[in-house]
Amino acid sequence: MSSAPSLLRLSNVTRRYDSPDGAAPLAVLDGVSLEIAPGQSVAIVGPSGSGKSTLLQIIGTLDHPTSGEVSLNGQDLTRLDEKQLAAVRNQLVGFVFQAHYLLPQCTVLENVLVPTLAAKSNPSLHLEKSKFEEPTARAGRLLKRVGLGERLSHRPSQLSGGERQRVAVVRALINQPQLLLADEPTGSLDHTSAQQLAQLLLELNREENVALVVVTHAMDLARRMNQVFELKDGHLVAQ
Question: Is residue 127 scored above 70 in pLDDT?
């Protein structure tokens, strides 16, 4: 674990699921602890069904731990209500999934700007952004940065798989989050596109100073991160 001040801290996190037949609950995560510093990159690997995606969803507040504490910037996320958690997801955390989840009827630029609409429509989600870029200018700059500067008016159906994932990465970064979570981001891509996306994620991790947590089966991607952890039998172990 890093000796730098923690951005993200998990303390003894467990996640259990009740069994429908009344048997003992299934413990997917069993006392997981983790610290990540600002700008750090971390990979989480492990066999299928080991709980990697569950852990990522708990970090991103899409799921709740059965017990334990998840802190972001020193704030215990397990104590926040749903409206406060929505603000965290919208402003502090970016998500990239194996499927891009782009809106087919929207252009590339419109897809990227979707997360900015929540803050505009709901003042309770707004965090101070006075020092940040105007969203449309930022979207254009980042799309140009990832090689899609000429594709702003295109729709997802007009893009390759790798291009759609790059749009998804820019969308995840549009609100300038402190933490970027990627769940098998290269899983649906061919080898060349996967390598390009992996390189792009690492470059943006440095350029945007955003902490990066990647869940992946691809060991070549995992080894490019600052640190690799394996999740096995509910426990997280540094490699």
Answer: no
